[in-house]
Amino acid sequence: MAHLFQVGAGSGGMTVLDIVCRDPRITHVTLIEPDIYKPHNVIRHQFPPAAVDRYKVDLAAACLLERRPELHIDTLRCSLMDAAMTERIDTAVKTCDIAICAADNEPAKFHFDMLMRRHKKPWTLGEVLAGGIGGLVHWFQHGNGPCYGCVASHLRRAIDTDQGRPPDYAAPGGIAPETTIPASRASIEVIASLHAQITLQLLTHGSTYAPGFTSLLFTLEAVPGIFEEAFRTYRFRIARSPDCLICRPDESPIDLDRAVDEALARLNQP
Ligand SMILES: [Zn+2]
Fold it and tell me: What is the CA(2)–ligand 1 centre distance, in A?
């Protein structure tokens, strides 16, 4: 019996959700997604073309219930940062056993991290690189390891230093001209499957989970100046940054909103 809390039912998020919910241990799902299914989503999404104009969160629930009629599903048609929904979201996080972040923007990822830290919940995050040239999966354990801010700034520095020009791993249409095309359904599915696998392992092993990395990068295409080869894994063991204001260990009261704003500002620096 496990309660899954997930944000995002886009093309990647829905694929992760579908795979993870085939595990009989998942009995309760809380899903947050504000968007309506649009015609341009169809090419990369598993929902059918006839579902256009309906809420993604409703389509996701129907899809899960078809396979698992006994699943208890709570759907929230709102943004994770919707101030009017704070209490409801907080209650759901409090009772979850595992969480999946499939949000498509940086502020939501930082907010997700903050929620998970507050309630000490394990969670995972998957990111398909712009152009579908590869992807990243991160896992987080409360009180053990870095926060999302530590991970994002570390990867940015690491890739900056080694490659000269970083792939924009968070935002589509990033820096390298090779990466301005949208990711394909194939690349989304590969990274979503890795994300689901790591999520289920984290659910199984809990606080003893130790795959040897905190972030896994898997390349899908060779791109000059970015990835030498396709189908290579890079395992990053990212430590908590000692000067990180978000996850510093002494837990002394700090202004978390301000710390998150500062972390976002640092990430956005050229
Ligand atoms: Zn941190």
Answer: 27
